[in-house]
Amino acid sequence: MLREDIEVDPERIAYDPDQDPEETRNLRRKYRALEQDLADNQDLTTEEVAEKLRSANQLFKSVQGINEATNDSGLLLQISQISAAKARAMKSGSGAFDVEDFVARLITFMGGRKPVTPTDDDNDEDESEYDEGAPLDWERIARRALAKSRRVPAMDFMLGPLSVEPKKRNAVKRAKLEKNKEDMKKPQEITEDDITRSENETTKNVATVERILHSAGEVNLFRFVINPDDFGQSVENMFYLSFLIRDGKCALNIDEETGEPMIMLCEQPTAEDYENQLVKHQIVMEFDMATWKRAIDVFEITEPMIPQRPKSTMRIGQKWYG
Predict the structure, then answer these.
(1) Which residues are CB-contacts of 196 (< 8 A; sequence separation ≥ 6)?
(2) How far is CA 262 from CA 214, 239, 253, 302, in A?
(3) pLDDT 10s digits, 163-178
């Protein structure tokens, strides 16, 4: 059974991922209903199968998604299988089509069963003995087939052109890669004693920032942490200041008159204060190079409040890193 032509608007049949969800759900529901109906009713008549195909064709006009197209192809495959079963069971004349009988008659037509003993012209074939090993006259059936086709017959060989020789595969020997042991290097082993520092720099720098903030009193956050000559150290200053805010030693407020972020040292809360429902508030602040340059221009920062620190060095193994 062939699918009949469907007249659909080309723009309508194009893939549309933004198709109305309610429309797609309705299409899937109808496809599932048709598939279930075909699965439950195996004894459908030819007309009923054709009616199912026409229903599928109507649904296909609204298909614009991959999932719905998959449902349509599955339904079409199911209808094709039922139609093929109907065709095999179709009656032709007085009986069903017998493949073995057709092949036997074809062999007889090509002379594959020649009588062993001479017989009269009007003698019935069933009353004679036949030679089952006689060669078949393929030209006879070919002439009969050519009467139904306009294709020009061509000569060919079953093994392809005679001049072609089979290619021989050349065995390729792969050279074994030999590594020079002198060039091989082991990874450097590092122990705790290999990483040395004169003192804990983080603790030292946090203490330095606390001491400077104590001397400065209440000060603008950006004027305190920004080093106008070094963006990296400005980020480090912000990092060290975050430890003071985390421990409750430093407070951050917004000035009501100027709107500037102000920081100052405060008394560190005790365990009793936290038991009395004291809550610390922390924020996540974005501090990139654009913000650094903008703050320098807005607050006219020319000198850092936190002095420039020399670059730290540490030793790993036998080498020093800055």
Answers:
(1) 314, 315
(2) 14, 17, 5, 19
(3) 666 677 787 777 776 6
